[in-house]
Amino acid sequence: MAEDRDGMTAETVGELLEDEYTRSILAETSTQPLSAAELVDRCNASSPTVYRRVERLQEHNLLESEQKLDPDGHHHRLFSARLERLTIELTDGSYEVSVDRTDEDAIERFTNLYEGLR
């Protein structure tokens, strides 16, 4: 089975997406960055469930996080989906997976970091 650049195989994709909480986290974070507490509410899941799924998605580079500073000076992480498109092809008896992820350029990362410190 062919892997993408981050080691994703069709089997890995299947394992990830068969889980309703993983699918829900990806869908919710595809529209806007969300905190773990917001994901708990929106996905109707427990905190440990959300954190386990978030960790697994981050291992496969499908979810990113950024640290934010709120007006009271508290830090919290916001999660955003990196998955744009997922393709699984069956070619000559073998599955090939292609995962397109969002890319954030260096200028965006610097701007987000700077805005998070203000």
UniProtKB/TrEMBL annotation:
InterPro entries noted in UniProt: ArsR-like_HTH, WH-like_DNA-bd_sf, WH_DNA-bd_sf
Superkingdom of origin organism: Archaea
Pfam family, one: HTH_20
UniProt name for this protein: Winged helix-turn-helix transcriptional regulator
Organism, as annotated: Natrialba swarupiae
